[in-house]
């Protein structure tokens, strides 16, 4: 198998999160998928995935590599697909995004997108809920978990890292955690996901060690902006995407805690209706979301790290 084929297999493993699922999707044996990834890793001289008995996770280097390769492979597929580039981007597109993601990633880049497609109009719903695309007139929606609704297809976007933070006055009162298990003794602010209205555990990683912290926040909300506002007021420890915390960390309103630990990165998924080939407008917006995500820099400002 050529290297491009190996890259496609690695991208499918990253998308589905397991060798077995990728093998089923590609109609290959699990062994063939595993061997293909191993050969690619050997050629590149780096490990793309970490394997254990429970899951397959991308390494930091592997995630960065696949995030760069994914749009290139998709662009090549688009060029090779007959008639794809000849379809005009026009009409009205209705999309659903979370407010925090829209403000941090989409809105700053939206003028350029609209200028490239003057015949396209957008209706944008800002919401934390997970709309069922088969029941509502939404063309594209954003998800933070792999969609399972049968009436939807999706494109995996990049994964974003979570960062735990707290207000300086809270840390002055309660102390600064030195280990993830210390969080069990602290007030926390939990985010209720739009999928099951529950808070999910937090996972921390360092040098092969994995720590799971169950959700037991004193306050739980289903709006990330409200969670962030409470964190600024010193109500407890909260974890959010690094890209949404830059201003707070730079200004000192919030401080990063546990900087020597990594939290689990969550991929984003752009979901669209499973009604035949997507329209040119849908494809254009999917490309825009993917490009916008890949342009985001997640560096945590030094001022946001406790001294």
UniProtKB/TrEMBL annotation:
GO function term, MF aspect, one: DNA binding
Top EC class for this record: lyase
EC number: 4.2.1.1
InterPro entries: LysR-type_TF_proteobact-type, LysR_HTH_N, LysR_subst-bd, WH-like_DNA-bd_sf, WH_DNA-bd_sf
Record-linked PANTHER family: HTH-TYPE TRANSCRIPTIONAL ACTIVATOR TTDR-RELATED, HTH-TYPE TRANSCRIPTIONAL REGULATOR
Family as reported in the entry's similarity comment: Belongs to the LysR transcriptional regulatory family.
The protein's name in its UniProt record: Transcriptional regulatory protein LysR family
Organism this protein belongs to: Laribacter hongkongensis (strain HLHK9)
